[in-house]
Amino acid sequence: MKKKYTVTDRIITKVTGWIAVLTILGLGVWGGFTLYGYYKFEQTNDAQVQEYVNPVISRAGGFIVAVKFEENQPVKKGDTLLIIDNREYKLQVAQTAAAIQKSEAQLQVLESNIHTLERNADAVKAQIKANEAKVLKQKLDYERYTELYKEESATKQKLEDIQAALDVSTSDYQTSQETFNAAASKIEDIRAEKSVVLAEITRLKALLERNKLDVDYTVITASYDGRMGRRTVEVGQMIDAGEVLAFIVNNETDKWVVANFKETQIAQMHIGDTVKILADAFPNKAFKGTIISLSPATGSSFSLLPPDNSTGNYVKIVQRVPVRIRVEGNRKEIDVLKVGMNVNVYSPKKQHHG
């Protein structure tokens, strides 16, 4: 029995044939472009966008009294981000300043005491000279009356009176010397005490500067132009010094991509080579990049537990080498690339440099 085909069957067969042809042509074109891409480029999809994402850290502890930013907010260098209650720190500044005033007053008292003792010492020194002259005169008188007594021209009583006067003058001279030595010793003691007070003033002034810094630390500002990331604090929260309060993405530095190429792909890559970057989020927009460095070791070598191939269980695995690529272009254009985004990197083969 002869099989008959309806018009519908013939149309379906014809359409199916064209679809198959177009599919084959499409696959052929896609395969050709893919092969051409592999021939012309070293490429990898193991790549992410990177920027400097720094924590905002408090250098002083206390209660948060104001939060001046929201997540994802752009900020300028010097903008206030957080304010910490600074009353305790201001009290410490006042206490240290008062301690400095007390020490300076004590220093003035010591200087006054030194001045008074120096004047007294000068007076005693003059008295020593007077007593020395008096002793010299009494010695001469005693020697003269001794000769007169031998010649029986003076009485023994007179000689004894002269000797007593000499003894008194000698005692006064010795006493004045001891008084002067005591005054000089006291002056040295006060000068030593003055040195201690001066050292204390120096210490207190350094402490005052530190206390003032603590007051300044209660106002946390942006260190550079950037964009705020995750925020972890609220008004009224108690924080400690060194605590991470938020994150900020630095807008003043380059944006770069870390592409992990296979070790078999990097032979023809050099610093300064130009590459093409396609982000998964923007597949129709190509970005230009420049290779700025190649890692000195494979990624696995920097891991916490690098592989040890000497254990006997060796399986050869192609390693990957991180390549750092700076994203070129004006900031407004490349800001669409966010930290952590996945990208595809294409490095042309056989790049030549002059």
UniProtKB/TrEMBL annotation:
Residues 256-297 form the CusB-like beta-barrel domain. Pfam families: Beta-barrel_RND_2, BSH_RND. It comes from Niastella yeongjuensis. InterPro entries: Beta-barrel_RND_2, MdtA-like_BSH, MFP. It is a single-pass membrane protein. Residues 86-162 form a coiled coil. It is found in: Membrane. One of its GO terms (biological process) is transmembrane transport. The chain crosses the membrane at residues 12-39. The keyword Metal-binding does not apply. Residues 56-249 form the Multidrug resistance protein MdtA-like barrel-sandwich hybrid domain. One of its GO terms (cellular component) is membrane. This is Multidrug transporter. Keywords: Coiled coil, Membrane, Transmembrane, Transmembrane helix. Its main location: membrane.
